[in-house]
Amino acid sequence: MNDGDQAIHFIYLMGCLVLVVSAFMVRRIPIAQGLKMFVGWVLIFGAAFVIFTLKDEFLALGSRLMVEVRGGTVQEVSGGEIRIRQASDGHFWVDAELNGQPARFLVDSGATTTSISRTTATRAGIEASAGPGAIVQTANGLVTVQRGRAGSIKVGGIERQDVAVHISDGFGETNVIGMNFLSSLRSWSVEGRTLILRS
Predict the structure, then answer these.
(1) How many angstroms separate the Cα of 122 from the Cα of each of 28, 105, 117, 132?
(2) If you average pLDDT over residues 20-43, what whole number do you get?
(3) pTM above 0.90?
């Protein structure tokens, strides 16, 4: 809300307050009782003014809380910086685009290469390279993977092209952003419960 809108709301609320005060004076309510009622109305109008003034912030907070309750991803993009709140499962998840297709990724600095499920690869049009696969160590044990290349991976305003990926049924439906993406950034860090990516 801009300053002009705030001024209009303030003038409107002050006008309403003047009407309330004039109503008290016409009815000749005792001073003590009138003072209590006046203070009550001032508090009501003050609360209304604060709500009108900060409604955008309240809406943004409400949206963030709803996403967290539903277990979704909370990302805040500012210029070349993305702040990602830690999810209730203790991990950092990002909503990204893989070859222009939406995909959800777990950010894992312990993974050397960005890895995607076979379903995600098919949806994004990524084909596995010919030849034998490789065996990689994951948190869930050894997994056989095939190599491929993503035309682009975009997280917020950060985009990287021609990114090597591992494709495997062994990942289930989980996609992982690994160090080959993170190391291309200017910097990344964890501050409290927030992961910060800087392009």
Answers:
(1) 78, 16, 9, 19
(2) 70
(3) no
